[in-house]
């Protein structure tokens, strides 16, 4: 099983043997790779009970929880790395969630779909309808993504918060692309952040 | 009230008196236990299962009094989620109970049954006795402790009070403290027993007949708390029992009445009323945070390397998911490796004993 490109990038960047919290861990694919290949002590949080059950039944430590509410339970700096993959845009307050992430983890990885990707812009321009794409495959009324954002929006948020960007990586059509004009060219993005 | 034959029981007498939370001591503590599967050479594959209020050590063996299959037969056995082809499973009757371990029906120093002279015990006292059993069996560190309901309380208490003696803790449909509502239901049961004239202040053993009516009512009330409203509606609705019309009397017109009466009566064949008083009291006294200075996280501070798995059921209103979340919250606060899932099952609190494939997968996966 191969990881989604943003997860594969995160897996490659997480140092060996550290403590990781994967928020929105799904079935635990990333945790499984981190545990097996990098000797990481991985914990997860996932809102969907069926996905939690799958993670637990593969021997991972995953808590069923709502990141909007339950991240507050973890102590400060409990983890070396906190990962938020494709979940920021589902938060009721993404800015608060980012604060929690950087409180719990010394380093945070955040990945999200870029709503300013040129195909999205074109689709919205041409059709005048909310785009439905490979990475945002659900209609506007049933999507969990309630706070769509762009790469530039995210950069603005972390600049306002005084958060340090340690690195950023961009992807389109399942491949990594360079950072120039990322707000146009990237389908999704991964940021490594610290306080 | 029936008693089990000594030949059906495996027992061990603890070498030293047991110091109890009440400050009293219990001498000559006998524990009746059963084992399943082989213990490996380095004694590292043992799993201790704690039973619930009216459970016993016959997890996966035919019950000597009822002749029914073990209470967790569907979960424990070769190739089952708790696989006895891989693990050595131990289950002991808790102290205070009535299937071979020392309880109110046992003989005191004077040779007469304790009755109400039996000391009030706690969940932690039950756990201490079982740690004594592990010591006697030479098992230093368990692969896991597992329990549902009161068994889950013992599992949490074990982790808090004997950290380092287990690698894993699996606590199902349980709580870290008894709520006012939990205590209230238990008090109804105790009052039903003590209001029965045959209770005689607990000295009924010589007569061979106990407060069966009171005990049956206690069981009926408790049984309702183990089921969900939807479960009762699906199973019985308002259907009448063996009749076409209401009798305008007080027979068991409704199927649900008949069912509860049967459950109550059948229970008196296998359980001692005084044991019911003592064990419900132990559960009511249970407050793991209180034992550890008032903060639940402090209970688990020494156990932060232990792997925990906490499971609740969406229809369990006896120990609802919020109680499991309290436990998870405390474990997160000490950064213990914890898994938690609320499973969907229609049967209320009893879901942990019944058909729930998702629970099977979680148990199997967690035990590794």
From TrEMBL, chain A:
<dbReference type="InterPro" id="IPR029063">
    <property type="entry name" value="SAM-dependent_MTases_sf"/>
</dbReference>
<dbReference type="Pfam" id="PF07021">
    <property type="entry name" value="MetW"/>
</dbReference>
<protein>
    <submittedName>
        <fullName>Methionine biosynthesis protein MetW</fullName>
    </submittedName>
</protein>
<dbReference type="InterPro" id="IPR010743">
    <property type="entry name" value="Methionine_synth_MetW"/>
</dbReference>
UniProtKB/TrEMBL annotation, chain B:
<feature type="active site">
    <location>
        <position position="349"/>
    </location>
</feature>
<comment type="function">
    <text>Transfers an acetyl group from acetyl-CoA to L-homoserine, forming acetyl-L-homoserine.</text>
</comment>
<dbReference type="InterPro" id="IPR029058">
    <property type="entry name" value="AB_hydrolase_fold"/>
</dbReference>
<comment type="similarity">
    <text>Belongs to the AB hydrolase superfamily. MetX family.</text>
</comment>
<feature type="binding site">
    <location>
        <position position="350"/>
    </location>
    <ligand>
        <name>substrate</name>
    </ligand>
</feature>
<dbReference type="GO" id="GO:0009086">
    <property type="term" value="P:methionine biosynthetic process"/>
</dbReference>
<comment type="pathway">
    <text>Amino-acid biosynthesis; L-methionine biosynthesis via de novo pathway; O-acetyl-L-homoserine from L-homoserine: step 1/1.</text>
</comment>
<dbReference type="GO" id="GO:0005737">
    <property type="term" value="C:cytoplasm"/>
</dbReference>
<dbReference type="GO" id="GO:0004414">
    <property type="term" value="F:homoserine O-acetyltransferase activity"/>
</dbReference>
<comment type="subunit">
    <text>Homodimer.</text>
</comment>
<feature type="active site">
    <location>
        <position position="316"/>
    </location>
</feature>
<keyword id="KW-0808">Transferase</keyword>
<dbReference type="GO" id="GO:0009092">
    <property type="term" value="P:homoserine metabolic process"/>
</dbReference>
<keyword id="KW-0028">Amino-acid biosynthesis</keyword>
<feature type="active site" description="Nucleophile">
    <location>
        <position position="149"/>
    </location>
</feature>
<feature type="binding site">
    <location>
        <position position="219"/>
    </location>
    <ligand>
        <name>substrate</name>
    </ligand>
</feature>
<feature type="domain" description="AB hydrolase-1">
    <location>
        <begin position="46"/>
        <end position="353"/>
    </location>
</feature>
<dbReference type="InterPro" id="IPR000073">
    <property type="entry name" value="AB_hydrolase_1"/>
</dbReference>
<protein>
    <recommendedName>
        <fullName>Homoserine O-acetyltransferase</fullName>
        <ecNumber>2.3.1.31</ecNumber>
    </recommendedName>
</protein>
<keyword id="KW-0486">Methionine biosynthesis</keyword>
<keyword id="KW-0012">Acyltransferase</keyword>
<dbReference type="InterPro" id="IPR008220">
    <property type="entry name" value="HAT_MetX-like"/>
</dbReference>
């Amino acid at each position: 099983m191969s990881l989604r490109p943003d997860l594969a990038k995160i897996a490659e960047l997480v140092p060996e043997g550290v403590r990781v919290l994967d928020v929105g861990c799904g079935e635990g694919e990333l945790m499984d790779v981190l545990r097996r290949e990098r000797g990481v002590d991985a914990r997860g949080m996932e809102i969907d009970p069926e996905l939690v059950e799958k993670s637990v039944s593969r021997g991972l430590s995953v808590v069923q929880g709502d990141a909007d509410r339950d991240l507050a339970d973890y102590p400060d700096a409990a983890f070396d790395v906190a990962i938020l993959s494709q979940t920021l845009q589902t938060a009721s307050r993404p800015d608060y969630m980012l604060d929690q992430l950087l409180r719990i983890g010394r380093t945070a990885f955040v990945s999200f779909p870029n709503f300013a990707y040129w195909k999205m812009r074109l689709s919205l321009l041409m059709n005048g309808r909310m785009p439905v794409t490979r990475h945002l495959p659900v209609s506007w009324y049933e999507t969990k993504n309630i706070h769509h954002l762009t790469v530039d929006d995210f950069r603005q948020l972390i600049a306002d918060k005084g958060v340090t960007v340690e690195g950023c990586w961009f992807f389109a059509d399942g491949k990594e692309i360079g950072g120039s004009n990322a707000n146009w060219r990237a389908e999704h993005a991964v940021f490594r952040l610290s306080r | 009230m029936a008693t089990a034959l000594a030949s059906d029981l495996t027992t061990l007498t603890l070498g030293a008196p047991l110091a109890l939370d009440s400050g009293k001591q219990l001498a000559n503590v006998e524990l009746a236990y059963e084992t399943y599967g082989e213990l490996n050479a380095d004694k590292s594959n043992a799993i201790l299962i704690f039973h619930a209020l009216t459970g016993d050590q016959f997890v996966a063996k035919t019950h000597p009094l009822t002749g029914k299959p073990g209470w967790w037969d569907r979960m424990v056995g070769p190739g089952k989620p708790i696989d006895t082809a891989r693990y050595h499973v131990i289950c002991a009757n808790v102290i205070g109970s009535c299937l071979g371990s020392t309880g109110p029906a046992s003989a005191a120093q004077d040779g007469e049954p304790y009755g109400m002279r039996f000391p009030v015990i706690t969940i932690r006292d039950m756990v201490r006795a079982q740690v004594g059993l592990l010591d006697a069996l030479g098992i230093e560190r368990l692969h896991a402790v597992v329990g549902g309901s009161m068994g889950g309380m013992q599992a949490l208490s074990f982790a808090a009070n004997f950290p380092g003696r287990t690698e894993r803790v699996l606590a199902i449909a349980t709580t870290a403290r008894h709520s006012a509502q939990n205590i209230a239901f238990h008090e109804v049961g105790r009052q039903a027993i003590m209001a029965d004239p045959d209770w005689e202040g607990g000295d009924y053993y010589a007569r061979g007949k106990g407060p069966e009516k009171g005990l049956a009512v206690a069981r009926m009330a408790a049984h309702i708390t183990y089921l969900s409203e939807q479960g009762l509606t699906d199973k019985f609705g308002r259907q009448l029992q063996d009749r076409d019309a209401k009798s305008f009397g007080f027979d068991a017109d409704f199927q649900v009445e008949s069912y509860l009466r049967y459950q109550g009566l059948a229970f008196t064949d296998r359980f001692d009323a005084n044991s019911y008083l003592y064990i419900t009291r132990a559960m009511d006294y249970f407050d793991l945070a209180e034992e550890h200075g008032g903060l639940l996280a402090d209970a688990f501070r020494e156990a932060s390397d232990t792997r925990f798995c906490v499971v609740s059921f969406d229809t369990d209103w006896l120990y609802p998911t919020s109680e499991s979340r309290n436990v998870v919250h405390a474990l997160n606060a000490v950064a213990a490796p914890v898994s938690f899932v609320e499973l969907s099952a229609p049967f209320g609190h009893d879901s942990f004993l019944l058909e729930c494939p998702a629970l099977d997968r979680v148990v199997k996966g967690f035990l590794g």
